[in-house]
Specification:
The protein is of the alpha+beta class and about 280 residues long. The chain has seven helices and seven strands, in the order αααβαββαββααββ.
Length: about 280
């Protein structure tokens, strides 16, 4: 900001000098004034650019700090539990059925840590453009039907009705079926988690505006406008009611996958509930 301020002051002084030149000046003086004005404009533009770059650096640094804090939190919790469980077994405090239960809990924590590390690795690779997926023509009705069928049991366990509303005609997209199904799993799981018993989650697909559009809608508690701006950021959980939902990488990975397909993902007005939509390139 100091450099930007110095340049801005220089621009102001140059502009002021140009304005103060008498109207009877000669050609040489006109040229000098023109150069002064051009220099002032350039200096002002540089000042704006430097200010924007510095603000961007601050934002990047703040995002880095927040991510490090979030990763530390999500690693510290299971590691602390693992240490206590290992100490209990090692000291002979946990024996018999208790020991077996502790071993099961240790396995759960190890699997959670593995999933977190795998998600971080995948997200970093996608965002770095290190993608080796095979894209092909995918018929979305079958893929969505299979995904909905796989998620119906956890939905029913929470008393949520899960359904697909699909057109009669084929809906074709250019995509990697495995990665696309991961997006659907993430969005459906998230919708089920935040939909109360007797609520519903609906998956739709259609051709729209030259693209293919997929929607996952629920009639749950919805997402505030403030959270809606950041809900696709890595490790962002929003309000406290969402703090139990794991590392907060599901939507971030979904966005990275969709954008790697050349599409975009966003929150639409659910009123009530949440409506997540994303686009794909048509086949």
């Amino acid at each position: 900001m100091k450099r930007a301020a110095i340049i801005a002051i220089a621009a102001f002084l140059a502009g002021a000098a140009a304005v103060a030149v008498p109207h009877w000046m000669g050609i040489a003086q006109v040229v000098l004034v023109a150069l002064a004005v051009a220099g002032a404009a350039l200096a002002a533009a540089l000042a704006v650019r430097l200010a924007m770059e510095e603000r961007s650096r601050r934002q990047i640094e703040e995002a880095r700090r927040q991510m490090v804090a979030a990763v530390s939190h999500d690693l510290r919790t299971p590691l602390a539990s693992l240490r206590l469980l290992v100490e209990a077994i090692d000291d002979g405090v946990a024996t018999g059925e208790t020991r077996e239960r502790y071993l099961g809990e240790m396995q759960t924590h190890v699997e959670a840590l593995t999933a977190l590390i795998d998600d971080l690795f995948e997200l970093s690779r996608i965002e770095a453009g290190e993608i080796s997926w095979t894209m092909r023509q995918v018929e979305l009705r079958g893929l969505i039907d299979d995904t909905v069928a796989a998620m119906r049991a956890p939905a029913e366990a929470r008393g949520v009705v899960l359904a697909a509303e699909l057109p009669a005609e084929e809906v074709l997209a250019q995509a990697n079926a495995e990665k696309l199904q991961r997006v659907l799993f993430n969005l459906i799981q998230n919708a089920i988690r935040h939909t109360p018993a007797d609520g519903s989650v609906t998956v739709r697909a259609r051709s729209a505006g030259g693209n293919v559009e997929i929607e996952v809608a629920d009639d749950g508690e919805g997402i505030s406008a403030a959270d809606g701006e950041r809900v696709f950021d890595a490790f962002y959980r929003g309000d406290e009611s969402r703090s139990e939902d794991g590392a907060g990488l599901g939507l971030a990975i979904s966005r990275a996958i969709v954008e790697a397909h050349g599409g975009r993902i966003w929150l639409d007005d659910g009123a009530p509930g949440t409506r997540v939509r994303f686009t794909l390139q048509p086949a």
